[in-house]
Amino acid sequence: MKLFKAFLIVFTWLLSNSLLAQNTKVYSRDKEQIYPEYIQVDRNILVENYFQFMDSLVTVYDSITSYTLTEHLLVRNNPWIIDTLQNTDYYRMKARDSFVYNQKKMIVIPKGNRIRLPDSHSADSLNNVFNHTQIDINIPEFKLRIFHDAVKMYEFPIRVGRNEKKFLEMSGREEDLRTKTGTGSIVGYNKDPRYANPANNHDYTVTRRDDKKITLVPQIPFIETELNGIRYGQMIHPTTNPETLGKAYSNGCIGTKEADAWVIYYYAPVNAKVTIRYDLRVLNENGDIVILKDIYGYQ
User: Fold this and answer.
1) CATH number of the domain that 244 lies in?
2) Which residues are catalytic?
3) SS (H, E, C) the chain
């Protein structure tokens, strides 16, 4: 039986074509086992096959680790991956005098890089962080914050839904485009999202950037939320036009910068808590109360 398991592990490594590694002794779920501490990448990984590659690693190593391995655990244990993904942002590349027409062809994990596999202590620590992470969105403030307990980890500018009602072909009825409030959680992702105009339900594969240049749409996960037990189809996703951030501009979804969307994705696994609120009284950096504009006319 032990020989069969060893053969199965080696065969799966070879099949994945990505697992030349340095070995170290750890504990598997049922007995002491040898498996790589590092995974050495033997080819360039592009955005377009990044998720398939990560899924293959999770499939291979989840069978031999002492904990349940996930993509979020693997990436959070290697924060440089998030940094690299953030740098596929069109506007970051533009600031470096580089025009990117097709983000999917960008290299996100270069050949020769090593990915560290979490040990059981690191996995437990990260899972504890996930369990105490909350996404907080204040609509009239146009801000999304990520908290670990009461400690703010990140703050990002966003755009929110417009203050109007409109017939959307995608849903087949008139919709209130204002972003919905409530408490709930992250319930899923779309890692290769369909880009469509909700008004006419037409797909589009290219986008006009703020600098008026045309590019293909990027591949960045859309994050699905559930509020008060209801799935409104209200996603957290990147916008290719950051000039719209700080505005009531969308069809109800929460829009972010491309770079910020990667951080939110990896800091908000499924079941992470989400609060979307409409608070006009907020504190500024000096601790003074500020009254925000009532963009939806609620008060």
Assistant:
1) 2.40.440.10
2) 237, 253
3) CHHHHHHHHHHHHHHHCCCECCEEEEECCCCEEEEECEEECCCCEEHHHHHHHHHHHHHHHHCCCCCCCCHHHHHHCCCHHHHHHHCCCHHHHHHCCCCCCCHHHCEEECCCCEEECCCHHHHHHHHHHHHCEEEEEEHHHCEEEEEECCEEEEEEECEEECCCEEEECCCCEEEECCCCCEEEEEEEEECCCCCEECCCCEECCEEECCCCCEEECCCCCEEEEEECCECCCCEEEECCCHHHCCCEEECCCEEECHHHHHHHHHHCCCCCEEEEECCCEEECCCCCEEECCCCCCCC
